[in-house]
# Entry
Amino acid sequence: MPVIKKEKALKELQLYANAANLGILWKANGKNIDPDYPRGLAPSKAWSFGVRANF
# Structure
């Protein structure tokens, strides 16, 4: 009968997160116009999260 090793120790764990287009950090004008998007069509907010595990 074969012997099965049940070693499932966690060798490596990586957690990561990314966020893009969350908003404007500073406005120099009083008109609330984003200088990167003068027509007011800013891209939507993007979030990503992930986990990588090696056993």
